[in-house]
Amino acid sequence: MKLSIVTPAHNEEDCIGQTICDIITVLNKEGIEYEIIVVNDNSTDNTIGIVADLMKTHSVIKLINRQKPSGFGRAIKDGLNQVTGDVVGIVMGDLSDDPRDIVKCFRKIEEGYDCVFGSRFMKGSVVKDYPPLKLFINRLANTFIQVLFLTRANDITNAFKFYRTKVIRKIQPIQALYFNITVELPLKAIARKFKFVQIPINWYGRKSGVSKLSVKEMGRKYLFTVLYAWLEKLLLKDEIRDR
């Protein structure tokens, strides 16, 4: 199986180069066939130049340069539309994700799962430098999602997740334009009863740059997306019952 990594990047000149090199080192060592699709989301720094330089020596890198309007969800959707692999994973470009966890997720897909959800909040996880307020809101939001969807997955809001490409095709159309895409993708997969597993992962707070996620601004968008996916789940259940 071939693995496609989608990495959105908006003004990540301090991190994107190391992120890509770390992924390449780990995946080459494991002998996994892969591609890295970097989606430049209207960066105004040297993100494009850094990725372009790496492309000269690494043919596995693809670069998508987005035009305005910007948006994390828009960037992810553009990346997903370009994947050629059997498996696709979303990996942040700010060094917060551990490349070794990419391998763990890919191996789980090889075992037969359709989706692998990385969790920062289960035994075996390592989390560093998570802002206390965001942590509190995160746990509150994820508990709400767990209760609403009756799911054991406890870190739905985390972007670090892997899917068989067929899953991404089945859950179209994807509506979210911003960070709320991180909940739309897994919740739609859960609603359609794709086989998933949750595994512990490591997460490290960014060492440079500025977080693009505004909790206050995104709250309503997250809530709308969660409720939209929940209603979709109910409709799908009714369809199955009526057959």
User: What is the CATH top level name?
Assistant: Alpha Beta
Distance between the termini: 34 Å
Largest sheet: 7 strands, mixed
What is the beta-strand fraction? 15-25%
The percent range for helix content is 40-55%
Q: Got a strand count?
A: 9
Q: Tally the structural domains.
A: 1
Overall average pLDDT: 93
Instruction: Give the helix/strand class.
Output: alpha/beta
CA-based gyration radius: 17 Å
Series of secondary-structure elements, N-terminal to C-terminal: EHEHEHEHEEHEHHEEH
User: The CATH topology is what?
Assistant: Spore Coat Polysaccharide Biosynthesis Protein SpsA, Chain A
Strand order of the largest sheet: 3-2-1-4-7-5-8
CATH architecture: Alpha-Beta Complex
- Number of helices, where a helix is a run of at least 4 consecutive DSSP H or I residues: 8
Shape: globular
CATH homologous superfamily grouping: Spore Coat Polysaccharide Biosynthesis Protein SpsA, Chain A
Unreliable stretches, pLDDT < 50, 5 or more residues? none
